[in-house]
Write a structure and sequence with these properties.
The protein is an alpha/beta fold and 339 residues long. The chain has 9 helices and 13 strands.
């Protein structure tokens, strides 16, 4: 009779943890995969303290000791599936893998910045240049855009935009970050281009800035678009982001967020990219790949029309996750039969 290996306690119901440091862009990607996989899931936000955060993510001997009081507990029963995103989530994914005796399947989105073989699956974007048997490359970031979500959001926000002419252009504006600068000069030029779209092409504008856009830049946009068929979200009420994407005939988006460009391209609508000052190798490769694939074009002051088939990165990763989970079920059944 085979000896049954003692395993740590798993949850009695199939379930999934989404583990991130709590950053919206990371959490959204992990949630996108969890929702598509279809297991019941909960979010675990981890906020480790220095000096732990100064160490490489694979070198934390006691990750649990690094958590501050605001963090969610990382304790049994362990999930069947753990999806992590973000460097600071890596030590907790590896800890759960170890404490569950390997029973938990761990999937990391983006580059874990440690040995890839420690994970069951790694899903980085193509511009990270990671390769291996357990690596599935994505064209861009994972996202939560689905036809059903866009349709539902469009119904909610349609009355607010009903007075605007068509075509309707959604304008998604990010802001300065570690790689890019949204300067007053750029925002002034963009404002003039948007005015021209309204006056010369007869479009309606649904503009959603972000917190990173900056109050001065938002004020400049509002002033330039005053009296024109344009709505600029004022951060009150429900976020109209999905609604604007669902209602738009075309999209203009700043280049500073891979997630924002990816989500725009997930609609299948023409996506015009506003390039800011700055950039780095990864961003440059990403934007070049999106242009070459026919998803995006640089914004030059006019709205164009073209067609493409959006990539199904989420579905591709989900298929690999389902395969991993099915194999574990099969192995578990064989082990039970042997005992």
């Amino acid at each position: 009779m085979a000896t049954k290996k003692k395993m740590a306690t798993l949850s009695t119901d199939p379930n999934c943890w989404v583990v991130t440091p709590g950053h919206a862009g990371m959490e959204s990607q992990a949630l996108a995969l969890a929702e598509d996989v279809g297991l019941p899931h909960i979010i675990k936000r981890v906020q480790p303290r220095p000096p732990w955060t100064w160490l490489p993510p694979g070198w934390w001997p006691w990750p649990g000791a690094a958590l501050d009081d605001a963090s969610d507990p990382i304790e049994p029963p362990w999930p069947d599936l753990l999806i992590s995103c973000g460097r600071r989530a890596v030590p907790y994914a590896l800890m759960v893998k170890r404490k569950s005796g390997g029973a938990t399947t761990i999937v990391h989105i983006q580059n874990p910045q440690t040995r890839l073989s420690a994970f069951d699956l790694v899903a980085p974007p193509r511009h990270d240049h990671l390769h291996g048997a357990n690596v599935v490359e994505t064209e861009a970031s994972l996202h939560r855009i689905t036809p059903a979500r866009l349709e539902a959001a469009a119904k909610v926000f349609a009355p607010q935009l009903a007075h605007l002419p068509r075509p309707l252009v959604a304008v998604l504006i990010g802001g300065s970050n570690a790689c890019y600068q949204l300067t007053p000069k750029i925002i002034a030029n963009l404002a003039l281009q948007l005015r021209s779209l309204c006056l010369n092409q007869g479009v309606g504008l649904a503009v959603t800035p972000s917190r990173r856009t900056g109050s001065d830049n938002i004020a400049a946009l509002r002033k330039a678009l005053d009296g024109l068929p344009a709505v600029v979200w004022d951060f009150t009420g429900n976020n109209p982001y999905f609604g604007y994407l669902g209602l738009a005939d075309a999209i203009i988006v700043t280049c500073d967020s891979v997630n924002m460009v990816t989500e725009a391209c997930a609609t299948g609508k023409p996506v015009h990219v506003v390039h800011l000052d700055g950039g780095n190798r990864k961003f440059n490769e990403f934007h070049a790949a999106m242009e070459n694939a026919g998803y995006t074009r640089p914004f030059k002051g006019t709205v164009e029309q073209w067609h493409y088939q959006p990539a199904d990165d989420v579905g591709k990763v989900t298929a690999r996750v389902h395969n991993l989970l099915a194999k574990k079920v099969h192995v578990g059944e064989e082990s039970a039969n042997l005992t």
